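Known limitations

Structure tokens in this collection are predictions and should be treated as such. Users comparing against experimental data should check residue numbering before alignment. To illustrate the layout, the record for Riboflavin biosynthesis protein RibD is reproduced below. The input appears on top and the generated tokens appear beneath it.
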Amino acid sequence: MQTALDKNVSQATMDEKFMRRCIQLAKNGLGTTAPNPMVGAVIVHDNKIIGEGFTSPFGGPHAEVNAMAAVTDKEILTESTLYVTLEPCSHFGKTPPCADLIVKHRIPRVVIGLKDPHNKVAGQGIQKLKDTGCEVVIGILGTACREHHKRFLSFHEKQRPYIILKWAESSDGFIAPEKQQRHTSPQPFWITGSLSKQLVHKWRSEEQAILVGTATVLEDNPKLNVRLWTGKSPTRIILDKDLTTPHSYNVLDKKQRTIVFTTRTDTTKYIDGIEYVTLDEPKNGPEAVCKHLHHLNIQSVIIEGGAKTLQSFIDANLWDEARIFTGVVRFTNGIEAPRIKGNCIHYKYIEKDRLTILKND
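Generated tokens:
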């Protein structure tokens, strides 16, 4: 005979199982849903999944709506459980409130991974469900859901984007050789192999923005787009204090959204089709950049150089992840790699390149 304790343990196990599926589904929205969170939802009847969904690209239906639309027999929703990684919204935005739709279909039980920190939600969706008699369970796989929603949470809890640092360094600790070893025309000096380059382009497709300093632009003339992967190119953020980037350079080609941070107020140097943010001269550090990125509704940014820009964010403790490639090439002299301390959460080899991922805990 199954005791009440056994039944509770069994239910908790099932709840975790279906929440894992929600997280798995939610990852399909990576790089397309922002500024909305990438949510996953599963609807279960008699311990079987009858509908599932994830957040559509921004402006489209939310995960709960897609999951309910996938249910063939809507009548059994009144006997089902909805699992969702984040609290259902309770306000009108691009789409109607998901909490209202749940109430409309009289779903009796909702299991939620995390409470939504957005000031337009913040428990109101949960309360709306409870007010109608719905059983609401909160916090199932909460740690895993927080990790999944890290971009959205950083934006609303820390009032800044989720910041990923990325660089490649030689086996002896340099990110570039001395200038005399470089070609005369501006172009990157590659440390890593082709598969590592492809992985970086995949990462670019997953984040809202990519940020570099002036030195990187002038030395490498990068495009900062997605070429070796399928996906949307991120918004380019260029830190160009004195507007020294030549108008012919790739980052100013207007092929993707580009925002230049500068201290120059002379708008005659501005280019039509490029956005400009003017920073105060004494207050043009990483904190100011993060404040403006938050104002621009950018929830995640990958910073790809150069060494000075990367180190400034490290020194300001404004970073969440660092993804560091170490190649086999040796430079002996050159531009030293940034110095960073963090918790190593993962490392692996991609061909001959070692990838180390640090978290700022």
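For this record: The mean pLDDT is 92. The first helix runs from residue 4 to 26. Please report discrepancies through the issue tracker.
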